[in-house]
Design brief:
The structure is a single chain. This protein has four helices and no strands. By secondary structure, the chain is mainly alpha-helical. The chain has one domain. It has helices spanning 4-19, 30-36, 41-53, 55-70.
Length: 75
């Protein structure tokens, strides 16, 4: 999908973000949208942005964080 140089750049960007506490193991890409819906890159990005900024999505993430805290496997 990406050249070796491009993949290295992506890996480096993820490493920097992870170093500063960001969760980067699961990132969404416009191709995830385009797999299900024929559209331009710009439209796919907007769809993805709307899905990830959706109040229900935020609520589910917070519930998942609470679940992870309550069921912390490192206890």
């Amino acid at each position: 999908m990406y050249s070796e140089t491009q993949q290295q750049e992506i890996d480096n960007a993820r490493a920097v973000l992870k170093k500063y506490g960001y969760y980067v193991t699961n990132l969404w890409h416009i191709d995830d949208v385009k797999f299900k819906h024929e559209c331009s890159d710009e439209e796919a990005y907007e769809i993805l942005e709307n899905a990830l900024k959706n109040e229900a999505t935020y609520e589910q993430i917070w519930l998942g964080i609470d679940y992870g805290i309550d069921n912390n496997v490192t206890k």
